[in-house]
Amino acid sequence: MAKQQQMTLLGHLQEFKDRLVKAAIALGVTTLFSLIFTRRALQLLIAPLGGNKPQILQPTGGIVSYFKVAFILGIVLAMPVIIYQVVRFVMPGLTRQESRYLYIMVPGATVSFALGVAFAGLVMLPFSIRYLQGFMSDIFNYDFEINRYISFVTSVLLWVGLSFETPLIIFFLVKMGVINVQLLTQNRKYAILIVAILAAIITPTPDPFNMLIVMAPLILLYEVGVLLARLA
Q1: What integer pLDDT is reported at residue 1 of this predicted model?
Q2: Is residue 49, in this structure, part of any structural domain at all?
Q3: CA–CA separation, 159 vs 198, rounded Å?
């Protein structure tokens, strides 16, 4: 029995490694492909700085920042493969009917993540950067270093993109019987509290206005998840 359990554990570890390798290969391929339009994406991300070009304090600062942006774009493009590998590993015993939901979840998760990244880059970050630049600008001179600026921006893009997966995650958990609509509606106030905490963590500025910019779509996404749960 012990030997059989050991083989089962080793089998799970081997499967985890195989799926991780597949996801990593997909991410590597999409990141390389993203290099084609990384320059344009980088220009969009530094556009909120106005006419001020970010500084480079290290010889490799520009290259590192360039590839960070390409990596985020690669994640967006590789999301179908990543989601598929994660679901198949976490729930290997999916029935044929349950496996059909992957045809909804995989493309839906990709679109949701892309929408989250677009929302963060085109709506949230311009407001946040303008606020940061205007904070006590009569005392401070804001000269952003490119590597730290891109690290800050890509972190926000990643977390907001992941938060946009909420409706699909709720839908999938309901279909799997893990949660139900009654649980979601009864605990709505706790969900709003969690959303507020997440918004405070994700929001790069301390003012409540930018926090509300993040909270509003997250609460809306939760309600969309509840609606999908009812349909489920």
Answers
A1: 44
A2: yes
A3: 9
